[in-house]
Amino acid sequence: xxxxxxxxxxxxxxxxxxxxxxxxxxxxxxxxxxxxxxxxxxxxxxxxxxxxxxxxxxxxxxxxxxxxxxxxxxxxxxxxxxxxxxxxxxxxxxxxxxxxxxxxxxxxxxxxxxxxxxxxxxxxxxxxxxxxxxxxxxxxxxxxxxxxxxxxxxxxxxxxx
Length: 161
Description:
The protein is of the alpha+beta class and about 160 residues long. Helices cover about 25% and strands about 40% of the residues. The protein folds into two domains: about 5-85, RimP-like superfamily, N-terminal (GMP Synthetase, Chain A, domain 3); about 85-150, SH3 type barrels, CATH 2.30.30.180. It contains three helices and nine strands. The mean pLDDT is about 90.
C-alpha cells in the first residue's frame, strides 16, 4: 500500500470518531524519519485541547487502527493538537484564517519582488492563488510559487509578568 493510500484510509477511518469527540481532523501524515515510521494525526477545535482530550482520542484511534490492521509496517502513532502555529495545506485550512488577524507566512521557492517570504493577513484565495495584505500592500501569490503557507502566533499582550 502506498503512503497516499494509507493516509486516505486513515482519514476515512478516524474522521468520524474525531468528529464524534468534538474535534476537527486537521491533518494526517505517514512518514519515515531516523527514529522509524510515524503516523501523525493532528486535531483541532476552537476551544483549548487538553492532554486528557488527546489521551481519549488517542485511545479510540489506536484501538480502531489495531482492529482495522491495514498498515503492514510497524509504526509509532502520534495524536496531537494542530498547534498555534500550523501549516495550511487545504482550502478548509485557509478558510479558517480568512479575514482574521492571524499572521500568514508564505515562503516561496524563488524570490518575487526581491523577497522569498511574505507575511500578512489572508484577504482572499482561489484555486490558483492566495492574497495577503502585507502592511498596506496587497500581494497575490500563486500556489505554485509557495513552498509553504503557515499561520503563525502573534502575541498581542505582554505575558512576561
